[in-house]
Amino acid sequence: MSSQTSIRRTTTADIASRKGGEPIVCLTAYDAPMAAILDQHCDLLLVGDSVGMVVHGLPSTVGVTMEMMILHGRAVMRGSTRALVVVDMPFGSYEASPGQAFENATRLLKETGAQAVKLESGRYAADTIAFLVERGVPVMGHVGLRPQAINVYGAFKARGRTTAERAEILSEAEATANAGAFAVVVEGVAEDLAREITERISAPTIGIGASPVCDGQILVTQDMLGLFDWTPKFVKRYAGLRAAITDAVVQYASEVRRRSFPEAAQVYRLDGPSRPKKSEA
Ligand code: KIV
What we know:
The protein is built from eleven helices and eight strands. The chain is an alpha/beta fold. The chain has a single domain (about 10-240), classed as TIM Barrel (Alpha-Beta Barrel), CATH 3.20.20. An eight-stranded parallel barrel has the order 1-2-3-4-5-6-7-8, surrounded by six helices. β6, α9 (about 190-200) and β7 form a beta-alpha-beta unit. The termini are far apart. It binds 3-methyl-2-oxobutanoic acid. 3-methyl-2-oxobutanoic acid binds near residues 50, 88, 142 and 208.
């Protein structure tokens, strides 16, 4: 191979090697400008299917399509140079068979340039993960609260509340890691279950609503930036974007209505060197 770039992107192997080491910093990204800001500070950017809810206003991730994931995946790749970029496989694109998953996963990698896919990995997914990984598609798993199963659960709430559910999540996590996933998102479970999963599986765990015991953390970027009125219990707001945007828009609207925007500094003038000569006018 002769092609060389000055900055090397983080690889799935880099992430896998961080098990039990320095915590892995992950956030979601859906567009190029945001990816460019996050890229310098994150190990992994996830083009999550949460894009359906956060950007497209859908009530859940169920309606997200391959085309949406490809469009947003390409944008995030254009905006980033360092972080590992992982694209979510949308609901209905991988569950039917390993062959269906391979077809759609390779489409995501080829058409976005991202290095890996993520899929929600109930026990049913172990064969699919092994099939993909053996054929060159790195996979990140996702256990615990699986948002694509919202119509089975009935509500977005923490999972692993009963002994049976706990055992099921633990076995899903083990099956996911044993099948070859390079990392596993653990969503919406209590700290003791997150600890048990993290201790038992060989792949790093990336927690979201799963306590600090995980090998890394991920949040939906717009949640942690405070873009919405309401955020779940596990989200810490690091900024107040909703209030900042509202203040800015209120001021803009008032200035437009008073004709105090645009000001002189924002107005083009045709005097000076760029003024067209009479003969050119
Ligand atoms: O779609 C998503 O954003 C996710 C995470 C937040 C883990 O799956």
